[in-house]
Amino acid sequence: xxxxxxxxxxxxxxxxxxxxxxxxxxxxxxxxxxxxxxxxxxxxxxxxxxxxxxxxxxxxxxxxxxxxxxxxxxxxxxxxxxxxxxxxxxxxxxxxxxxxxxxxxxxxxxxxxxxxxxxxxxxxxxxxxxxxxxxxxxxxxxxxxxxxxxxxxxxxxxxxxxxxxxxxxxxxxxxxxxxxxxxxxxxxxxxxxxxx
Length: 196
Fold this sequence. Notes:
The chain has 196 residues and is mainly alpha-helical. The chain has helices at residues 4-24, 31-51, 59-71, 76-102, 111-126, 136-151, 167-192. It is globular and about 65 Å long. The two termini are 41 Å apart.
C-alpha cells in the first residue's frame, strides 16, 4: 500500500490542481474556498466594527459563537441552539459574577468563588434535556466568555451597568451577532458554490 503521508500529499496536490483548473474553467467555487472567503470578509468587517468603533462589541466573543454555530451543525437548528446555549451560559456566568461581586465571604478566600462556579456550572449541563440547550459546549462557551470578560479588565465591577461594559450585555450581544454572522457566512458560501 501507499504510505499514509504520501497518500495525503498526493491527495492535496490533486485537490489543489482540481481547484485551480475548476476556477480557471469558470466552474463552481469549491466549498472550502467559498467558506474561507466568506468568513474572511465578514470576519474582517466584524473585527473592524468591534475594534474600530465605540459600540463596545467584543470581537473574540463573536468569533466563539461563530465557530459554535458551525460545530453545532451550521443550519437553522444550529443557529437556535447556538444562540440559546450561548446566551444561557452568559446569563449563568453573569449570575455567578453578581454573587461573587456582591456576596463576598472573606473567610473562605478563593474557596468561595470556586463554590459559586461549581454550583453554576452544574446548571450548564443539567439543562441538556431541553432541546434548545442540548448542546452543552454552547452553554459552556457563553459561560466561559462571560467569566473571562468579567474577571479581566474590570468587567466584574460593571455587572450592574446598563451598557456594553456589563458582561451580560457586551458578551451576550456579541455572541448573538457572532452566531448570526456564522449563518450569514455559511449562506454566502452556499451562494458562491452554486452553478449559475
